[in-house]
Amino acid sequence: MRIVLLGAPGSGKGTQAQKLINKYGIPQISTGDLLRAAVASGSTLGKQAKEFMDAGQLVTDELVLGMIEERLAEDDTKNGYILDGFPRNIPQAEALDRLLTKLKQPLDGAILIDVDFDVLLKRITGRRTCDSCGQVYNIYSSPPSKEGECDKCDGVLQHRSDDNEETIGSRLKVYEEQTCPLVDYYSKQSMLRKIKGIGDIEDIFKRVCDAIDLLGK
Ligand code: AMP
Questions:
Q1: Closest Cα to atom 15, ligand 1: which residue?
Q2: Is residue 13 annotated as part of the catalytic site, yes or no?
Q3: Which helix (H) or strand (E) holds 7?
Q4: In which band, very low, low, confident or very high, does the pLDDT at 163 lie, cut at 50, 70 and 90?
Q5: How do residues 58-107 score in pLDDT, each as one tens digit?
Q6: CA dist 100 to 24, 34, 38, 214, Å?
């Protein structure tokens, strides 16, 4: 199964992708995570990406496409994957189609997790991520039992540097202007399923799984 998870920053793509990994046994490929790892490693790629990320802008297509091509060549992608945060604009979606045609691995579809903008802001500012296992919390809606500490592994919870109100404004604007057109792009190919991304995480997950079952039908 090869799917794209679409949704604004804070729509819960990462949380749902984690649950899909467990259910379907396929990897999540998050360009945001790959880029943050590159920044943390201090690589040239990371240094180039950091400026854009801190400003809430998209990193150049060239950089992201190179990274994705490398990642999709890895062995664990043979049975499929969940693309999270990629593609982010039409040129990336077109490049992905070309790459997947070359690899003879067409996409099964795209799932849009739809959340109103006012909800997104609260979700993003409250988001905390465990620096060891990646578990995501929200200090307003799903806080850890002990402040700043992961319930699963006792890791330290981090607030992403681009999850501040200033950067979030740009990230949401970029989403609206550059990523939203992908909804039409995948709709026109009859590949899109849209689900409501509010409410209980398990209920949202059920909607995502039902949408996946309907892909290609
Ligand atoms: P995310 O974790 O998906 O919200 O991504 C965090 C930041 O990484 C974004 O605000 C962008 O600066 C950058 N980024 C992630 N994915 C992409 C992508 N597909 N294209 C360009 N920039 C990206």
A1: 32
A2: yes
A3: none
A4: confident
A5: 999 999 999 999 999 999 999 999 999 999 999 999 999 999 999 999 99
A6: 20, 20, 24, 21
Q: Which residue ranges have their beta carbon within 6 Å of ligand 1? A: 9, 31-32, 35, 52-53, 56-59, 64, 85-86, 88, 92, 162, 171
Give me the half-sphere count of Cα atoms (radius 13 Å) on the Cβ side of residue 170: 12
Question: Once rounded to an integer, what is the mean pLDDT over residues 165-184?
Answer: 92
What is the domain-level CATH number for residue 204? 3.40.50.300
Range of the structural domain that residue 205 is part of? 2-115+183-214
Rounded distance from Cα 33 to ligand 1 centre (Å): 8
Task: Label the pairing between strands 192-196 and 81-84.
Answer: unpaired
- Whether residue 199 is contained in a domain is answered as yes
Instruction: Assess if residue 121 is contained within a domain.
Output: no
Global confidence as pTM: 0.88
Q: What is the pLDDT of residues 30-58, one digit of tens each?
A: 999 999 999 999 999 999 999 999 999 99
Indicate whether 53 belongs to any domain: yes
Q: How many domains does the chain have?
A: 1
